[in-house]
Amino acid sequence: MSTVAAVQAALAAEHAAVYGYGVVGGRVGKDRQAEATEAYSAHRARRDAMERTVRDLGAKPVVADAAYALPFPVPDAPAAVRLAAVLEDRIAGVYSDLVRAAEGALRQEAAGALREAAVRAVRWRGTGVAFPGLAERATRQ
After folding, report:
1. How far apart, in Å, are the Cα atoms of 46 and each of 26, 31, 75, 102, 109?
2. pLDDT digits over 71-122, tens only?
3. What is the count of structural domains for the chain?
4. Residue 53: how many CB atoms within 10 A of its CB?
5. Residues 20, 63, 111, CA angle at the centre, nearest 5°?
6. Which region holds residue 30: left if phi is over 0, alpha if psi is between -120 and 50, else beta?
7. Which H, E and C letters describe the chain, residue by residue?
8. 60 φ/ψ angles, rounded to the nearest 5 degrees
9. What span, in angstroms and rounded, lies between the C-alpha atoms of 10 and 110?
10. Domain span including residue 126
11. Which of 2, 35, 40, 134 can pair with 21 through a Cys bridge, CB separation 3.0 to 4.6 Å?
């Protein structure tokens, strides 16, 4: 995967995460509202940074879709918490790809984003995975 393609994938995933956290924020319980708001803001900031990076690489940033299909219905707070963990797992995956594709400062930024997503996923889920961002290894024992 080229660096530009990996950055575009990260940008697309951030667009989806911002949308998803809109759903999470509307359904999560009051006890986790601040956490959802913080994650929403973090993903907006990452999205904006990825847009700048795409432009800096000489490409046109992918635009957000009007809506995104959710992986499952989110009728209540427990489902919202599960959705938040899934969003972070997906984000970790695309930043893992960007770590492999990038060099220098961009690689460090991607590694930081991967780490942040993994930490948020643990907070939402209550448990971690062996290899955040590497789904093919996380399920192996």
Report:
1. 21, 25, 27, 16, 10
2. 999 999 999 999 999 999 999 999 999 999 999 999 999 999 999 999 999 9
3. 1
4. 22
5. 65
6. alpha
7. CCHHHHHHHHHHHHHHHHHHHHHHHHHCCHHHHHHHHHHHHHHHHHHHHHHHHHHHCCCCCCCCCCCCCCCCCCCCHHHHHHHHHHHHHHHHHHHHHHHHHCCHHHHHHHHHHHHHHHHHHHHHHCCCCCCCCCHHHHCCC
8. -95, 125
9. 9
10. 3-138
11. 40
CB atoms within 10 A of CB 126: 9
Distance CA 19, CA 37 (A): 12
CATH number (domain holding residue 59): 1.20.1260.10
